[in-house]
Write a structure and sequence with these properties.
alpha/beta, 6-stranded mixed β-sheet, 10 strands, Glutaredoxin, 30% helix
């Protein structure tokens, strides 16, 4: 796992590779909910981010939208998660032309981020953290970034390749 010293000082202890990923169910919109277990049999990328509309989060989510063909090539499902509410997520996704689900970890606030060890009590939001989960529901790669740093997609793609090749 990549873990920056700054993240450790903030108290983040992201789930390590080899850990079973905690299941969750979150609302996508008024009518649809998504659970991690819905994607068993295929890799899932969880992209926790601090807030809709912030410059770094906007850039990160736009990059992932651009990288969607690569994620799809690996049959991976991308899910964005922050503590912002459903309506905020919908407006943000519409404005940024995001075609992957943004899930509100809103009520109870940060429950999913806490389960993954990436909730910041001091700030009331989640870390900028990435998890690649295999088709069996096991974390195969995780990374926590500085809040102001866009972690990019290279680590995600390498983890997906490792899963595909049986190295993870």
């Amino acid at each position: 796992m990549n873990h920056t010293p700054e993240a450790s000082e903030r108290g983040a202890s992201a789930l390590a590779p080899g850990t079973e990923a905690p299941d969750f169910t979150l609302q996508v919109d008024k009518e649809e909910k998504v659970s991690l277990r819905d994607f068993r049999g295929r890799p899932v990328v969880l992209a926790f981010y601090p807030a809709d509309w912030s410059p770094t989060c906007s850039d990160q989510m736009a990059l992932y939208q651009t990288a969607m063909p690569e994620f799809e090539r690996h049959n991976a499902q991308l899910l964005g998660i922050s503590v912002d509410g459903m309506w905020c997520h919908q407006a943000f996704a519409d404005d940024r032309n995001l075609e992957f689900p943004l899930l509100p970890d809103f009520e109870p606030k940060g429950q999913v981020a806490r389960a993954y060890g990436v909730y910041r009590n001091d700030a009331g939001k989640c870390e900028r953290a990435l998890f690649v989960i295999d088709g069996d529901g096991v974390v195969r790669w995780s990374h926590v970034s500085e809040p102001s740093v866009n972690p990019g997609a290279d680590g995600i793609l390498k983890a997906l390749e490792a899963i595909e090749e049986g190295r993870a």
